[in-house]
Design a protein that fits this description.
This protein is mainly alpha-helical. The chain has five helices and no strands. Helix 2 crosses helix 3 and helix 2 packs across helix 5. The chain starts with a helix and ends with a helix. The model has no long low-confidence stretch (mean pLDDT 95).
């Protein structure tokens, strides 16, 4: 499911950002605090994630994305 994201995400930053954003109910400010970055950094990463076809605010995508992120992050 996340193949396009993983192909574009060399260091795992996008995957981790997506997972934290989803953990925080799609709240970029809360995610930024947890990630230790500025909220504009999270916003830029989310734009990149959206450009790859993933929208954490879309209710039809939210659960599958969250589960896929958890599986991938648990495996590593």
């Amino acid at each position: 499911m996340l193949a396009p994201l993983l192909a574009a995400d060399r260091d795992g930053t996008l995957l981790r950002t997506l997972a934290v954003v989803l953990d925080q109910g799609a709240a970029p400010s809360a995610a930024a605090e947890i990630l230790g970055v500025h909220r504009n950094t999270v916003a830029a990463r989310l734009e990149r994630i959206r450009s790859l076809g993933f929208d954490p605010e879309d209710p039809t995508q939210r659960l599958p994305l969250h589960l896929a992120c958890r599986v991938l992050l648990t495996e590593s």
